[in-house]
Amino acid sequence: MQDHGLFQAICRTNRLDGEDKDFGYIVAYKGLFKKVENAIAVYTSELDHSDDGPAPDVLLKDRLKKGKECLDQALERIVLLCERVEPPKGELEYIHFFCGNTEIASDLK
C-alpha cells in the first residue's frame, strides 16, 4: 500500500471509537515504519492548521513505553488495594482478605 491507502488502513484498524480506548496498535506493518511515517506526513500536510480549525492529533507512540506506563499504573492500584491485608501478608492473609475465612460460615456468603 502506498501513502494514502496505508494511512487509511491504519485509521480503520486503530480507530478510537470511545472513551474506553486511549490508543491503538499498528501491529501488521512490521518493517514498514518509515513508510508509515511518510504516509502520516502526507496526510498531516493536508490538515487545516489555521487558528480557528481544530488541532490535528496524529501521534505515533512507543508501544513499550505506553505499555510500561499502563503496567506501572496497574501495579500502583494493586499496592493500594492490598494495603489493608493483615500482616505478615502471606498467602493465607491474602486469601482471607479477598475470599474470606473458610472456617467462618458468614465469610463465605
What does this structure look like?
The protein is mainly α. The protein folds into two domains: 1-60, no CATH class; 62-109, no CATH class. It is built from four helices and no strands. It has helices at 3-13, 33-45, 63-81, 91-99.
Question: What order do the helices and strands come in, and which of them pair?
Answer:
Blueprint: H1 3-13, H2 33-45, H3 63-81, H4 91-99
Helix pairs in contact: 1-2
Concise account of the structure shown:
It is built from 4 helices and no strands. By secondary structure, the chain is mostly helical. The chain folds into 2 domains: 1-60, no CATH class; 62-109, no CATH class.
Spans of at least 5 consecutive residues with low confidence: none
C-alpha Rg, in Å? Answer: 23 Å
What portion of the residues fall into strands of 2 or more residues? under 5%
- The separation of the N and C termini measures 58 Å
**Structural class based on helices, strands and sheet pairing:** mainly alpha
- Element string (H = helix, E = strand): HHHH
> What profile does the largest beta sheet have?
none
Looking at the structure, what is the overall shape? elongated
Overall number of structural domains: 2
Number of strands: 0
Helix fraction by DSSP (H/I, runs of at least 4): 40-55%
Give the overall average pLDDT.
76
How many DSSP helices?
A: 4
